[in-house]
Amino acid sequence: MRYITIEEINKASADPLGFIRQSEGEYDLMLQNAAKQILKTAEEKPIVLLSGPSGSGKTTSALRIEALLEQWGHPCHTLSMDNYYYRDKNLVIPMDDEGQLDLETPLIVDGALLQAHIQSLIKGETIDVPRFDFVAQKRLEERIPLTRRKGELVVIEGIHALTPSVVGNAHDWGTGLYVSVRTRVKDPNGFVLHPSKVRLLRRLMRDQRGRGQSFEDPVARARSANRGERPSITPHERHPEISLDSFCTCAAPA
Questions:
Q1: Whole-prediction pTM value?
Q2: Which of 229, 78, 232, 89 is nearest to 157 (CA)?
């Protein structure tokens, strides 16, 4: 397990741009190694399943891997599982121990549609990707066509990208990639800031800029989100072919 001290962060941040360049350089090297590993089995496994808990940098990592592969001459698409969320009158979202909706449950993902789309992509058939409006909390009528041509890759990113009940059995056609904040921040008194707090800070910015929420909303849901991750998301960190520590990357712009 990696630790970084407050003193080290303060010393490095005396040169803010240099600190950013160093951190981004470290993460870019991790992504390059991940992309190289993906390419080793790209012909038989054209789908990359990128998972991790909320605020871990999945979208940022997926888009940067896509950019690297494109730069190296390997066409790639990124597909967000967020757009496969759905709400309807027949969907019963379970409650957690504190009476809040469990929004980390796999039940809120349209797994049947996603699995059908994955198989179509593998075959080279065109799919119509749905869009989910987080502000309105509903699926839009608009669809975006996507076709995977021969030799192209598709990165599917989302908290349940490695959940078999959502994506199916990916052993034969997918490469698993798990992203999360692993590094711990330690203060002079030995207090250790848990990575979940770093992820919460990222969610504050993401949800305020992109989902129409106040800072209070993700804070109020933090305990529920952490509990929801344990049974359905974090168990999958043990099995993927590739793992990344996203502590040193910056959040994707809105």
A1: 0.84
A2: 78
